[in-house]
Write a structure and sequence with these properties.
Largest sheet: 6 strands, antiparallel
CATH class of the largest domain: Alpha Beta
CATH superfamily of the largest domain: Histidine kinase-like ATPase, C-terminal domain
Structural class: alpha+beta
Number of helices: 12
Number of domains: 3
CATH architecture of the largest domain: 2-Layer Sandwich
Order of helices and strands: HEEHHHEEEEHHHEHEEHEEHHEEH
Strand content: 15-25%
CATH topology of the largest domain: Heat Shock Protein 90
Length: 409
């Protein structure tokens, strides 16, 4: 196939992707003038393509938000990056007929012939908002029902005192599982959208880079796709791990292994996932053979290093230290990043908790909860030492972890 035919084929695939996408896609230039909109977006807002081309993106935003939106988009043009828009806020768009509806928006960007362009991926979330309201109403009714049943059971418990604790725990567990499912739907919906939008935008941009000299750009976007898929996998693994922990299905398999060899291997694996020019330094002192669950320990170390990288600047240093003396094992992961406030440190191990200064940094709030549970399963303890803007150190200690059978021998 010659270059012209190949380019025509690539253009056809790009147009098919753009035109058949099941979400609204709008491209604007640095002046916020609409350059293109796919059919889904046009149907969503009720316009024809001729009616929107060249007009300001503010035409699709309720008038009361125009002034604020202009400030935000100008700031984005100066510091563009792929991210969800309006995290923690309710966003609204306006149709041609003046009706408003709730939306979720993810932003991407690219440069073509020294001109900066922004791609907005827009989804109408009216149905989901109604579903969330229905879930909230259902939860309120469930809570009211639980309270009513608790009052009724309290009277009966005077005669059934021996079963009071068991029934109370059962009711509380039912409530917690309801809240867990509700939080899962909300967080998964939000956390999945950003990597999925990154995959879509990278695919869209790869189709545009057809020349041989564009290979570095193609490789860059392919790496973004790989990273996004890995992120989705990590999010799913976190939810699956929490589910297994809640159901008591985590089995601890103690065995003898070389601690230094295991952690050094994890460090080599994680180096490819660090931010630009970050340094990962590992040191070990003392004995090397330990008696723990290697799989759970590996998960703990990978999660701590990943957190240290996410919350540290490019070029930062991450220090991992292990020591083993007389059966006592200590693991330390220290960074020099944004740190954690003293108030937030009280809630770090809680399910879904996110520190106030986490901002738009990707995460589900489950990692440290899982780490704390895995540490408990291996009879260990975890300590956090941190100051805002001074970095964070997590120290995990396992005491007297000697295999009794070997000790007897």
């Amino acid at each position: 196939m010659n270059s012209t035919a190949r380019q025509n084929s690539d253009n056809y695939r790009y147009e098919a992707l753009f035109n058949q996408a099941s979400m609204g896609i709008i491209v604007v230039n640095s002046a916020a003038a609409i350059q293109s909109a796919n059919p889904f977006a046009l149907r969503l807002f009720g316009y024809t393509l001729e009616e929107v081309l060249g007009r300001s993106i503010e035409m699709l935003i309720p008038g009361r938000y125009h002034h604020r939106h202009v400030r935000h988009r100008e700031a984005y043009i100066h510091h563009p990056k792929n991210r969800p828009m309006g995290v923690g806020m309710d966003l609204f768009a306006v149709k041609k007929d003046g009706s408003e509806f709730p939306v979720e928006v993810s932003l991407s960007n690219y440069q073509d012939q020294e001109e900066q362009y922004v791609i907005a991926f827009i989804s109408d979330i009216s149905v989901r908002k109604k579903a969330e309201a229905a879930v909230e109403e259902l939860n309120n009714k469930l809570e009211s029902t639980v309270e009513q049943r608790t009052r009724e059971l309290t009277i009966a418990m005077q005669e059934l005192e021996h079963s009071k604790d068991e029934l109370a725990k059962s009711l509380e567990k039912e409530k917690e599982l309801g809240e867990l499912k509700s939080r899962f739907v909300s967080i998964a919906s939000h956390e999945f959208r950003t990597p999925l939008s990154t995959v879509l935008s990278s695919t869209y941009l790869i189709e545009k880079y057809t020349a041989a000299e564009d290979q570095p750009r193609r490789e860059k976007h392919l790496q973004r796709i790989v990273s996004s898929v890995q992120l989705l996998t990590d999010i799913l693994n976190d939810f699956l791990s929490v589910g297994k922990i809640e159901e008591g299905k985590i089995q601890v398999r103690f065995s003898h292994f070389d601690l230094q060899e295991l952690i050094a291997g994890v460090a080599r694996e994680m180096e490819n996932n660090l931010k630009k020019e970050q340094q990962l330094i590992y040191r070990h002192t003392g004995e090397t053979e330990v008696y723990l669950d290697a799989s759970l320990l590996k998960h703990i170390v990978m999660n701590l290093i990943s957190n240290a990288s996410k919350f540290s600047p490019e070029g930062g240093r991450i220090e991992v230290t292990t020591s083993c003396h007389e059966g006592n094992v200590t693991l330390s992961v220290k960074d020099h990043g944004i740190g954690i406030s003293r108030e937030d440190q009280k809630h770090l191990m809680e399910r879904f908790f996110r520190a106030a200064n986490a901002g738009n940094i990707q995460g589900t709030g489950l990692g440290l909860h899982i780490i704390s549970k895995y540490t408990e399963l291996m009879n260990g303890s975890i300590q956090c030492i941190s100051e805002l803007e001074q970095g964070t150190e997590f120290i995990i200690t396992f005491n007297h972890i000697i295999n009794k059978e070997r000790q007897a021998v």
